[in-house]
Amino acid sequence: MAQQKLRLLYVGLLSVGALCLYFSMAPYKEEPFVFKKTYGTFLQLPDIDCRQDPPFLVLLVTSSHMQASARTAIRKTWGREWTVSGRQVRTFFLLGTTGNQEQTNAVAQESYEHGDIIQKNFKDVYFNLTLKTMMGLEWVHHFCPQAAFVMKTDSDMFVNVHYLTELLLKKNRTTRFFTGFLKLNEYPIRRKFNKWFVSKYEYPWDKYPPFCSGTGYVFSSDVASQVYDVSESVPFIKLEDVFVGLCLAKLRIRPEELHSQQTFFPEGLRFSTCRFKKIVACHFVTPKELLTYWHVLETSQEDCPEV
Ligand SMILES: *[C@@H]1O[C@H](CO)[C@@H](O)[C@H](O)[C@H]1NC(C)=O
Ligand SMILES: *[C@@H]1O[C@H](CO)[C@@H](O)[C@H](O)[C@H]1NC(C)=O
User: Fold this and answer.
1) What reaction does this enzyme carry out catalytically (predicted)?
2) Is 122 in the pocket of ligand 1 (CB under 6 A)?
């Protein structure tokens, strides 16, 4: 009798052990996602002929179907068509697809009206940002290699197009240039319930390569083609800025500072006229704040100290 109980206990322990092993291994069983350059087909293309009229700077803004008001605010402010010192600046929005027919129609209508939407057929969810970014780079590679520079940024950003243009001209770099808010010593987050959790299966190494915060980075347009070219041979990771960093590492392109002063603010920055005249990008700006800041900047007569 006692022996039988012991045997039962053994069997029980063994089963628990096997289950534990099974669940600890489970994440390793998912199929690896292999990125394909030609993933999806273009559904919307923006209204521009880069061969005829090459822009100096193209701003690619990751956006979603729900962010129509952010796009409206951006079109009225930094995303307007600009000519800065005789150089053309254009802004386009990057979108995927949703199952919602109403939203799908609204985006098609918006694209028809504004001609500023780049869209491919992949599911528009946060963790498809890498696909969205790569779509932007693919678009530059195929349709607009004539642009001098490209900026990839988000919908909740303030971008100072004039200052950025000024700094790019001053920097006088034309190829293999990549800049933004530098992240040179970042480590994968291994805590399971963190939004940015990355499993050892997805990324087995202990450190990320140098990259720039995805809130806003700028590069010479040749980098778009080069990153696009190596993208299939780099391990896929859902964090788009890290993925681009992996591509850059493979290309031996090192992210650099744009200016001696800090100009990219991924953690946000309190608004002041003089401050915002001398920055390139600031995160956490609502559409309403953006419109207000813009109005203040455009109408201000304030003399700002030279920095
Ligand atoms: C990303 O998009 C693809 C293609 O639509 C889809 O199969 C995949 O499930 C999406 N990823 C996530 C995390 O939902
Ligand atoms: C920019 O760099 C080129 C060479 O790379 C040089 O010939 C030119 O003078 C530079 N222009 C300015 C404004 O510094």
Assistant:
1) a globoside Gb4Cer (d18:1(4E)) + UDP-alpha-D-galactose = a globoside GalGb4Cer (d18:1(4E)) + UDP + H(+)
2) yes
Side chain identity at 132, as an amino acid letter? K
Q: For residue 301, what pLDDT band results from cuts at 50, 70 and 90?
A: confident
N-to-C CA span, the chain:
87
Closest approach atom of ligand 1 to CA 122: 5
State in Å: Cα 128 to ligand 1 middle: 6
What is d(CA 166, CA 171) in angstroms, rounded to the nearest whole number? Answer: 9
pTM of the model: 0.89
pLDDT of 196: 87
Q: Which two tokens stand for residue 165?
A: 């243009």
Q: Say how many Å lie between the CA of residue 148 and the centre of ligand 2.
A: 15
Which of these, 201, 244, 235, 242, lies nearest to 34 by C-alpha position? Answer: 235
36 lines ligand 1 (CB under 6 A): no
Cα(248) to ligand 2 centroid in Å equals 25
